């Protein structure tokens, strides 16, 4: 019998060479992108995502350095690990992009979102809406005889849970800011 020959670069299907499928799971990542604050930069970043079929779950952007004319774009996206790596690499190549940080892998972060929810109702539904708002620490920012507008901040999951409870009580409209995130600790990840 001759020994089994495997071509260079070929993969053996032996029980000792099993590949892990863990890397093929879709992961959610929060990216902090520091960019030049100039016209068209946001469109270029968004164009990268839409042109390649990547999904953006949340997007926030604001100027964070007035003297240096820099803005921070916080993007929540999801994909397989190789897709996330491609996104970060392609973002880094856009000329007005100064820094790209994957906050999900760089350490613990604090993520918050703000939402406004309009709830219309009367009687018991109105009382229950106020009770739930108190439990979730949501503030009433507008009130009429027919409706409330609640303001709530917290994790996206907290806002989802609050909205789910408000639906049967007369939830009519929701406006969300998207996730704002910072790395925990004293060291600045972006500037």
Provide structural commentary:
The protein has 191 residues and is an alpha+beta fold. It folds into two domains: 24-106, Alpha-Beta Plaits, CATH 3.30.70; 109-181, Alpha-Beta Plaits, CATH 3.30.70.1150. It has five helices and nine strands, in the order E-H-E-E-H-E-H-E-H-E-E-H-E-E. The chain has helices at 41-52, 81-92, 103-106, 124-135, 156-166, and strands at 27-36, 56-65, 70-79, 97-102, 109-120, 139-143, 147-154, 171-176, 180-183. The strands form two sheets. Strands 5, 6, 7, 8 and 9 form a five-stranded antiparallel beta sheet that branches. Strands 2-3-1-4 form a four-stranded antiparallel beta sheet. A hairpin with a 3-residue loop joins strand 6 (139-143) and strand 7. The protein starts with 26 loop residues before the first strand and ends in an 8-residue tail after the last strand. Mean pLDDT is 86; it is low at 1-21.
- Tell me the span between the first and last alpha carbons: 65 Å
Overall domain count: 2
Q: What's the architecture of the largest domain, going by CATH? A: 2-Layer Sandwich
Name the helicity range. 25-40%
Structural class: alpha+beta
- The CATH H-level superfamily of the largest domain is ACT domain
Percent of residues in beta strands: 35-45%
Q: How many helical elements?
A: 5
Topology as a string of helices (H) and strands (E)? EHEEHEHEHEEHEE
Top CATH class of the largest domain: Alpha Beta
Quick one: overall form? elongated
Radius of gyration over all CA atoms, rounded: 23 Å
What's the CATH topology label of the largest domain?
Alpha-Beta Plaits
Mean pLDDT: 86
Number of strands: 9
The main sheet comes to: 5 strands, antiparallel
Residue windows where pLDDT falls under 50 for at least 5 positions: 1-21
């Amino acid at each position: 019998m001759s020994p089994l020959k495997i071509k260079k670069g070929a993969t053996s299907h032996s029980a000792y060479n099993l590949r892990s499928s863990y890397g093929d799971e879709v992961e959610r990542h929060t990216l902090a992108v520091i960019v030049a604050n100039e016209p068209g930069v946001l469109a270029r970043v968004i164009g990268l995502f839409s042109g390649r079929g990547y999904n953006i779950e949340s997007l926030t952007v604001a100027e964070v350095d007035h003297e240096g004319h820099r803005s921070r774009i916080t993007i929540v996206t999801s994909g397989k690990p190789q897709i996330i790596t491609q996104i970060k690499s392609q973002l880094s190549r856009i000329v007005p992009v100064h820094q790209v940080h994957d906050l999900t892998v760089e350490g613990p972060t604090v993520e918050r979102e703000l939402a406004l929810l309009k709830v219309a109702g009367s009687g018991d539904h109105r009382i229950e809406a106020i009770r739930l708002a108190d439990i979730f620490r949501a503030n009433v920012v507008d009130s009429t005889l027919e409706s409330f507008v609640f303001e709530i901040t917290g994790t996206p999951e907290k806002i989802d849970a609050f909205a789910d409870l408000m639906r049967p009580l007369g939830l009519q409209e929701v406006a969300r800011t998207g996730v704002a995130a910072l790395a925990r600790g004293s060291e600045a990840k972006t500037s």
